Amino acid sequence: MSLIYHTLKLVRQKMNEFFANQYPRSEDWVILANIVDTDGNAFEDAKNKIVMVLANIQHETIVSTYTRTVPVKGDLYAVVTPPLYIDLFLLYYANFSDRNYGEGLTMISETISFFQQNPTFTHDTLPDLDASIEKLTFEMVNLAVSDLNYLMGMMSAKYLPSVYYKVRLLTFQSRAMRGEIPAVQGPETSDSAA
């Protein structure tokens, strides 16, 4: 399973548990899906739900912990490719319309409350989180009306209440070793100097 999908699925499950405790119902409150299908029609399974949409992926350039070599065994070190750190941008879209619009306002409020109470996830709070991820941080991002309009248009969606989050920090690290090098040895010293 892919790192991104697995991570988002875990967060979605945690949100559904949170919502179900307060508002029990037979189906999930949060779905990871498109708002509309590829033909531009409303996605039926997403109606009356909070739709979790991956809106963007960006390379995180602030983090720089690259070590070119890592210990393998004894005096050998492996030459490795630097890890790639990425941030995800998630749109939580309250897909409730007509008579259910008020319920949508309640659920988008609950979404904000959920992340206010859970701004970070670690292996303690999400035990199945991939080992490469130390911590996920959710930060609400303000979108200008023009940017929000562009985003909704790009997804072929009509505006409904929504909230946008930046999720830091997924680490993509190749397990492939590019080579091995010996450890640097200092000069030998003689203990028999007089």
Outline the structure in words.
The longest helix has 20 residues, at 3-22. The protein is 24% helix and 31% strand. The chain is an alpha+beta fold. The strands form two sheets. It has a six-stranded mixed β-sheet with strand order 1-2-5-8-7-6. Strands 3-4-9 form a three-stranded antiparallel β-sheet, with no helix packed on it. It is globular and about 70 Å long. A hairpin with a 2-residue loop joins strand 3 (69-73) and strand 4 (76-80). The chain starts with a helix and ends in a 12-residue tail after the last strand. It has a domain at 3-59 and 87-164.
Give the CA-CA distance, first to last residue. 66 Å
Assembly type = single chain
Low-confidence stretches: none
Structural class: alpha+beta
- Helix content estimate: 10-25%
| Count of strand segments | 9
Tell the overall outline. globular
Overall pLDDT score: 84
Order of helices and strands, N to C?
HEEEEEHEEHEE
Query: Radius of gyration, Cα only, in angstroms?
Result: 23 Å
Total count of helical runs of at least 4 residues: 3
Strand content: 25-35%
Strand order within the widest sheet? 1-2-5-8-7-6
Largest sheet: 6 strands, mixed
